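Input.
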Amino acid sequence: MRRGRGESGASALEFGLVLPVLLLIFFSLVEYAWYLTQQMTLVNAVAAGARAGVKAREWDAETPEDPNELARKAVREHFWFFHIPEQSISTDDTFRAAADSPRMMEVKVTGLEADTLTGYLPEALLPRRMSARAVMVFP
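Output.
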């Protein structure tokens, strides 16, 4: 197929115009997928912390376990992206409605700074802070 006169670089020019938009879309998807991976891992880590805390055996006289410390340790172990500061993790094992109600454990991580890959997406599109909360009941 013969090209008309003056059309020899048209496809390269069109590619050059479209490429920045395609790269912006691609890197936005990668950045948002990274944020969602961190958020899901944080939610799972907090749930694991609540599960570990509610299963603590503090009533055992031989080897008593602190439910709050077990919960904090489980959250730190299950969130493998980066270190969670100790002040970001809060636990509450006294979360009961009545004395005869089932044992409950609440674990929260608030204000954790999200790790970004590129950092060019504004906070309106990609939150900079992550939070998670889990409540576990042990009958």
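Strands lie at 89-92, 103-113, 129-138.
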